[in-house]
Every structure is written in structure tokens, then in C-alpha cells.
Amino acid sequence: SYGVASAAYNYFGKSLDQLTPDEAAFLGALPKGPTNYHPKRYPAAALGRRNWVLGEMADNKWLSEEQLKTALARPLNTRSAPRRAEYADADFFVEEARRRAIALFGQEEVNRGGYYLRTTLDPQLQSAARDALMRGLEDYDRRHGWRGAWGTTDFAEGWQAEAQKRTSPPERRSWQAAAVESVSGGTIRVRTAKDDQAGPLRAADVTWSNAGRRPLKRG
């Protein structure tokens, strides 16, 4: 998040003047270690740090004892994902909006100002359009036959790390690198590089790969 006002919106869906003391304390804890105190990945650490900040607020007379007691009793409830996660399929659009804001207000002001930018972007339509484009490209690729692997391996130690250096397209984050483990008749088994899981290819994928100029083979 850029700026505390933006963080308030991302984590709690609120403006600064709507935050409760416990929510404000959590935001105050984040600069110490945004990753270490991620509320979903490390909830216990995030809650502990928030409570420490609340204690400091009370020690410095920003909270009464009653307010401290109430704030400590509240659970740490944040949004399921920061608002920016909704724009994952529009990264170029969002970056262009950010650059235009910087051109208007300056880098420092944008980073600390907590601005809201209203644009023409509809995240759901953008995701649908991007998915439709990818499916169209995949269909086109299948109609022209498989073009061959981007590499080979002898399954020596370390092959998984080498395979994972090839990243999948942003639109297909679930794709994994894999190697052909065996070919027997119409059955082709592959092994994934990331989690070392093995299994057969679907019949449609076998047909597609064998229709290409370079059919699948081990490695």
C-alpha cells in the first residue's frame, strides 16, 4: 500500500477517521515488518505486534485503560486480500494510472498521500477478457499441433530447480513445469518439478502432443 490512508482502505476498507484504536495500532505495527506481520500468513505474530503497539499507546496516554482493555479484546479482522489483488489481471493498466498520478502530484506525494484513483477499469470484465484471450491463444495453438518442449532433462539431481526457472505466463499462474517420465503406447506419464508429483496426461493432451512434429518422449 502507498500511504497509511491507502493501507487503511486495503486492510480494513475504511478511511483513516473510521479506524478503531486496534485497527490503527495494527497499521502502526506494519512498518516494522510488513511481511513478518502479515495478518493472514502470520496471524499470531500480527496480533502480538498489534497488542504491543496498543500497550505503547496506553503508556503514552493516547488510550485510557478502558479503551486499552476493549481494543485488546478485539480480534484482528482484515479484508481477505488487499484491494490491489483484485487488479492482478490489469497490472499494466494500474501501473499506467500510478505513473499518471505521479506526473500530476509527484512521487513523494503519491506514496504518502493515500489517494484514491477513479478509473474506467472493471476488474471482473478485465479478468474475463484476459481469460478469453488466453483460451483463444491456447485453442489456436492446439489447432496447429504441439511445437515441442522448451528443454530436456535426464532427471539428474537438480533438474527440478532448472525447470522452475521457466516461469508460467501471468495469466496461467497455475501452470507447472513438468518432464515426461515415461511413454508407453498411448499412455504418457509426467512428473512436476515443483512438488515432484507424477501422473498420466489426459487423452486429449496425448492426442494433441502426438499430432505435432515432435511427439513427446522421455525427458
Instruction: Tell me the major beta sheet.
Output: 3 strands, antiparallel
Beta-strand percent range: 5-15%
Alpha carbon gyration radius: 25 Å
Which residues sit in consecutive blocks of at least 5 with pLDDT less than 50?
none
For the terminal residues, how far apart are their CA atoms? Answer: 44 Å
The CATH C-level name of the largest domain is Mainly Alpha
How many domains? The number is: 2
Note down, in words, how this protein is organized.
With 219 residues, the chain is mainly alpha-helical. It folds into 2 domains: 4-113, Penicillin binding protein transpeptidase fold; 159-211, no CATH class. The protein contains 9 helices and 3 strands. The chain has a 3-stranded antiparallel beta sheet, with no helix packed on it. The longest helix is centred in the middle third of the chain and has 21 residues, at 123-143. The mean pLDDT is 82.
